[in-house]
UniProtKB/TrEMBL annotation:
<protein>
    <submittedName>
        <fullName>Radical SAM protein</fullName>
    </submittedName>
</protein>
<keyword id="KW-0411">Iron-sulfur</keyword>
<dbReference type="GO" id="GO:0003824">
    <property type="term" value="F:catalytic activity"/>
</dbReference>
<dbReference type="InterPro" id="IPR006638">
    <property type="entry name" value="Elp3/MiaA/NifB-like_rSAM"/>
</dbReference>
<dbReference type="InterPro" id="IPR051198">
    <property type="entry name" value="BchE-like"/>
</dbReference>
<keyword id="KW-0408">Iron</keyword>
<keyword id="KW-0949">S-adenosyl-L-methionine</keyword>
<keyword id="KW-0479">Metal-binding</keyword>
<dbReference type="InterPro" id="IPR007197">
    <property type="entry name" value="rSAM"/>
</dbReference>
<dbReference type="GO" id="GO:0046872">
    <property type="term" value="F:metal ion binding"/>
</dbReference>
<dbReference type="Pfam" id="PF04055">
    <property type="entry name" value="Radical_SAM"/>
</dbReference>
<dbReference type="InterPro" id="IPR023404">
    <property type="entry name" value="rSAM_horseshoe"/>
</dbReference>
<dbReference type="GO" id="GO:0051536">
    <property type="term" value="F:iron-sulfur cluster binding"/>
</dbReference>
<dbReference type="InterPro" id="IPR058240">
    <property type="entry name" value="rSAM_sf"/>
</dbReference>
<feature type="domain" description="Radical SAM core">
    <location>
        <begin position="290"/>
        <end position="516"/>
    </location>
</feature>
Length: 648
């Protein structure tokens, strides 16, 4: 077997499963150009492929033999697992193998995603740990459990990956807090299986939390070093160092953990984004991600050209270190063309911390002049350039199909306190421009903002309600004091008091894997986090953003009203993912929208249909039709008579 220089993975568990996370393809491209032997693997998506199987669903079903099946939660999970087991082959094929983008595929993707979470929900990989010392303690005490489907599969994947070819270096790129615990478990296993392998952690979470990680004495049992910046040059020179060609002091943005030799980096990297090559997706299953279509991503910049928002752990580094970097329009156009020619890309997501829209538009002009077109999405601020309708129109004409933006609040006072650098009074015109031109707009919203009054919360909610037809909402999260943010560094300025930077708080109720995690803090009026959270949840309940893909049918304004239909001439044909379950009560379970309804005793069923006998009870069928449980189907008088006979 050939010795590899490096194996690099994107670890479980995160919902970043729509397309390949970009860190691996960028690093792989750079290192292969330097003639290093590199193998990349997305453990996060491949865990999904491996866990969503008939075998694992059957194990889950069998594990419920000893559960309390009078408990609706348990009944729902068991019945959902049975549904997935019956349809696993078709669902897997539709979602991961042969994507045909339509409404049915959207439903299949949602069902598979929920099925994966069902199989993972009791796994160690999803354990919610709220401090790094507790996390390393969990790793120290970890005992393998054959009933933990997720952990068993992850170890099997690791063993196969390690045994395929030996390697000098094993790198793990950690973007989200929810990946930290599974990553440390992987490190432990690597050291047990191949102690000679040099194990490193890098990525956004390591950049944020390196100081806290360095305080963990046991970390060096499993990890040899921490990458604290862009990984390209770091990994190249680390490989050269391990070959004896350069000194450890030549390895940039890196901390060696063994023997307490080093607690801070020796030097900064010289790597610049203008030196970046197009990302290399060649050995990733880029056609088999958890979405309705195949799409890819690139970045146009590193950091944020604004870099002042108090709550942002990404952009302010580029301001403090004066290292904001940006590609040229020609470079971006070339990368897009490369992805089109080599991978058949039709959609590319610009996944910057803050996309420079003028830069992207210039790049699209060049791309179009070269005879290529793509659909693209951006992540950016609600900046004044979007007041210019002609600018927005050109974005649309050149392929913009989605724009994700930071709304946070429409209180100018709070926006100024946070140094957001946008003008709230311009929001409406920007929303109207994009809506009229057909560019879907998705907001991120922050709750629990410092010194926010009830009147400001009400005004923000009313603004969102008024614009619900024109917007989507990507993320709702409570304010988080992540490491390196201005909020965490100078809490007094924002009228909060840090109570613990070891015990962390995130967004357990609102975001996947607790979301972003930061120091625990109190507001100027004391420990009012839960009160503010409950108020924020009211916005979630009261605002139905119509530009969201995943909005239940009864929340959509386009839902047809059926106030007038021919009485006694309809039955409700249930969708395949809706089941009637008879226990102490008769329940209607909707696995797509994760809802359970008690059925009135005036409704009858034959598993595929719901029907009523009395004319005044037809309204119940309409109700469940509006909820998205099925389709009202006309029946003739003879069939109605047969249904009456069947009922008797």
């Amino acid at each position: 077997m050939e010795l590899q220089d490096l194996k690099i993975i994107f670890p479980p568990v995160t919902e970043a499963r729509l397309f390949p996370y970009l860190s691996l393809p960028m690093i792989t491209s750079y290192l292969r150009n330097k003639k290093l032997k590199v193998e990349q693997k997305d453990f996060n998506i491949e865990l999904c492929h491996n866990i969503f199987s008939e075998t694992n669903l059957l194990k889950f079903i069998e594990s419920y033999k000893d559960k309390d099946l009078q408990n609706i939660k348990n009944i729902y999970r068991l019945e959902f697992a049975k549904y997935l087991y019956e349809n696993q082959k078709e669902l897997f094929h539709n979602v991961f193998i042969n994507k045909n983008s339509d409404n049915e595929l959207k439903n299949d993707v949602r069902l598979v995603r929920q099925g994966i979470e069902l199989l993972l929900e009791s796994s160690f990989l999803k354990k919610e740990v709220t401090s790094l010392p507790q996390m390393i303690s969990e790793i120290n005490m970890f005992i393998e459990n054959e009933k933990d489907i997720g952990s068993v599969i992850q170890k099997k994947m690791l063993v196969e990956f390690l045994n395929r070819n030996p390697t000098k270096i094993f790198g793990i790129s950690i973007a989200y807090y929810s990946q930290l615990l599974p990553s440390l478990l992987l490190c432990k296993w690597i050291k047990e299986l191949m102690p000679e392998v040099f194990v490193i952690l890098g990525g956004q979470q390591i950049m944020l939390r390196k100081e806290q990680l360095l305080k963990l004495d046991d970390l060096s049992k499993y990890v040899d070093g921490l990458g604290t910046g862009a990984g390209e040059e770091t990994l190249y020179l680390l490989s050269k160092h391990l070959d004896g060609e350069v000194e450890k002091y030549d390895v940039p943005d890196f901390i060696f953990l063994k023997d307490n030799v080093q607690k801070e980096i020796f030097k900064k990297t010289d790597y610049h984004i203008k030196d970046a090559l197009p990302p290399d997706f060649s050995d990733l299953p880029y056609k088999n991600y958890l979405d309705e279509e195949v799409h890819m991503s690139i970045i146009t910049c590193v950091g944020c050209y604004w870099g002042r928002c108090a709550f942002c752990s990404y952009g302010n580094r580029s301001r403090e270190e004066k290292n904001y970097q940006q590609k040229t329009p020609k470079q971006i156009a070339y990368e897009c063309e490369y992805l089109i020619r080599n991978y058949g890309a039709k959609r590319i997501n610009f996944i910057d911390e803050n996309t420079n829209l003028r830069l992207v538009l210039n790049a699209m002009r060049i791309l179009n002049e070269n005879g290529y077109r793509i659909f693209f999405s951006t992540r950016n601020r609600l900046e004044d350039i979007l007041l210019k309708k002609e600018f927005c129109k050109e974005l649309k004409d050149r392929g913009c199909i989605l724009m994700s933006v930071g709304y946070e609040t429409n209180s100018q006072r709070i926006l100024d306190l946070l140094d957001k650098g946008v003008t709230a009074k311009n929001y409406q015109q920007i929303i109207d421009n994009l809506h009229e031109l057909g560019i879907p707009l998705r907001f991120s919203i922050i709750g629990g903002l410092p010194n926010e009054t009830e009147e400001e919360v009400m005004n923000s909610e009313e603004f969102l309600r008024k614009n619900a037809d024109k917007i989507g909402i990507d993320v709702m999260q409570m304010l988080v004091a992540e490491p390196t943010t201005y909020l965490a560094k100078n809490p007094e300025k924002y009228n909060v008091t840090i109570t613990s930077d070891e015990e962390l708080r995130g967004n357990k109720l609102l975001n996947y894997g607790m979301g972003r995690m930061g120091a625990t803090f109190n507001y100027s009026d004391g420990d009012t986090f839960n009160e503010r959270l409950n108020r924020f949840l009211e916005i979630y309940k009261n605002v139905n953003p119509q530009k969201n893909d995943e909005l239940p049918p009864d929340k959509r304004k386009s839902a047809e009203s059926r106030n007038h239909f021919n009485q006694n001439s309809y039955v409700l044909q249930l969708y395949p993912w809706v089941r009637v379950i008879k226990n102490e009560r008769t329940l209607l379970m909707d696995f797509l929208w994760q809802r359970v309804f008690p059925l009135p005793n005036v409704i009858y069923d034959n598993q595929d249909y719901l029907y009523v006998v009395e004319e005044e009870h037809q309204i119940y069928l309409q109700h469940f039709g509006d909820k998205g449980s099925g389709i009202l189907v006309a029946v003739n008088e003879k069939e109605a008579i047969l249904n009456e006979a069947y009922r008797k």
